[in-house]
Amino acid sequence: MQIQFHKTQGLLIHFPLTELELARTVLRNLYATTKAQIIMDLIKTINLYLQPKLTLVSHFHFCHNCQMEIDDRVGDNFIHYTSDTDDKWFHRYCKPLKEDRP
């Protein structure tokens, strides 16, 4: 945190991104005193920024030739074809299907 005071310009408090939790605490205390809506809006924005972001990654896909599962973490027996309209996965060499399969 950096605090700068200029007699003609005013007071400046700077929080780097690594200290956003401290900034949120300071803003909450400031809001408790002033009840200014702009401070509450800023607190909500910081809360959204600090909220953990979870991403879902699926490593399983279906081969468009044999309709069998492809795990993209194992080996390199697959081809991922993408274009503006298509997103397809193919085995390089599809496994032979079992006999008498429905």
Write the layout of secondary structure elements.
Layout: E1 2-6, E2 10-14, H1 20-34, H2 37-50, E3 60-62, E4 69-71, E5 78-82, E6 87-91
Antiparallel strand pairs: 1-2, 3-4, 5-6
SSE class: alpha+beta
Q: How far is the first residue's CA from the last residue's CA?
A: 68 Å
Compute the number of structural domains.
Answer: 2
Count of distinct strands: 6
User: Approximately how much helix is present in the residues?
Assistant: 25-40%
Q: Name the average pLDDT.
A: 91
Judging from the principal axes of the Cα atoms, what is the shape?
A: rod-shaped
Instruction: Write out the strand line-up for the largest beta sheet, numbering strands in chain order.
Output: 1-2
Q: Classify the beta-strand content into a percent band.
A: 25-35%
> What is the alpha-carbon Rg in Å?
27 Å
Main sheet attributes: strand count, strand direction, barrel closure: 2 strands, antiparallel
Low-confidence stretches: none
Order of helices and strands: EEHHEEEE
Determine the number of helices (DSSP H or I, runs of at least 4 residues): 2
